[in-house]
Specification:
5 helices, globular, alpha/beta, disordered N terminus, 30% strand, two-stranded antiparallel sheet, single chain, 7-stranded mixed sheet
Length: 193
């Protein structure tokens, strides 16, 4: 029996593009953050999203970064290394006339070796099973990529254990199916006298 559910589509939940359905590239392993997880996350981020500078590493479908832009983020940078993912995202950005969103084709770890202005919110949803979270978190913390009290969204497979940098603390955390997700608050690292 065939499903009537559209394949490779996601829906923007709220904001400027509320209800818009967007295609995403049919890439193996690409799993957009589910609607109910996004809704919970953006309820958590509600007080800080307006005007925020956001980084969506491992952008994939663009679900997190585009939801942030729709809800009033001041600037969003989407980073992904896969050519067909980037091509599809480029088409989506043109259709949405998303002037506050910038798209970068790069490996996340390589992108973080460069320099940039600090972000207020970072979405970190790497491919499962590749052990990328801790290294990327260290790069974000040590590379000056985070504002003094940045928020970082972490998504991993349920049961995956990782260590946060010392000045990061879990603000909220939940699970949905096989996904564990957390919103982490970063405070400026203490400096030695």
């Amino acid at each position: 029996m065939r499903s009537n559910k559209p394949q490779n589509q996601l829906r923007i939940i709220a904001g400027r593009w509320r209800g818009r359905r967007l295609r995403f590239a049919p890439v193996p392993g690409l799993r957009p953050t589910p609607d109910r997880v996004r809704e919970t996350l953006f309820n958590w981020l509600g007080p800080v999203i307006a005007g925020a500078r956001c980084l969506d590493l491992f952008a994939g479908s663009g679900a997190l970064g585009l939801e942030a832009a729709s809800r009033g983020a001041g600037e969003v940078v989407l980073v992904d290394s896969h050519a067909s993912v980037v091509d599809t995202l480029r088409q989506q950005l043109q259709q949405l006339d998303a002037g506050q969103v910038r798209l970068v084709q790069a490996d996340a770890a390589v992108y973080l070796r460069g320099g940039g202005q600090p972000f207020d919110i970072v979405f970190l949803d790497p491919p499962f099973g590749e052990g990328l979270l801790e290294g990327i978190m260290q790069q974000l913390e040590e590379g000056g990529w985070l504002s003094a009290d940045a928020w970082v969204y972490l998504e991993a497979e349920r049961g995956h254990v990782y260590e946060l940098p010392p000045n990061w603390a879990v603000h909220r955390s939940k699970t949905a199916g096989q996904v564990a997700y957390s919103l982490v608050h970063r405070t400026a690292a203490a400096t030695a006298d």
